[in-house]
Amino acid sequence: MYLQFFGLNEAPFSITPDPAFVFLSDAHRDALAHLLYGIGQGGAGGFVQLTGEVGTGKTTLCRCLLEQVPEDTRIALILNPLVTPRELLAGICEELGIDVAGFSDSNKALVDALNAFLLQEHAAGRRVVVVIDEAQNLSPEALEQVRLLTNLETAKDKLLQIVLLGQPELRTLLQRKSLRQLAQRITARYHLAPLGPGETAAYVRHRMKVAGARQNPFKRSALRALYQRSEGIPRLINIIADRSLVGAYAEEAATVGARLVNAAANEVQPSETRVRSSRWPGMIATASAIGLLAVTLALFGLPQISGDRFFPDSRSVANVDQKAPPAPSQPGYHSPVIEEPPAEGLAVAGYESLEPAQALPAALPSSLDETWLDNQHRRAWRMLADLWQDSAGAPDIEAACDGAPGRGYSCLREYGSWARVQRLGLPVLLVLQAPEPRYLLLRGLTDRGLLVGDEAVPLEVSREAVESRWLGEFILPWPQADDWPAEIRRGETGSAVDIVLEMATFADPPWEGGVEFDDQFENWLIAFQRRHGLKPDGIVGRVTLLYLMAPTITEPRLITAEEENS
Question: Last residue of some domain: 161, 192, 223?
Answer without folding.
Answer: 192
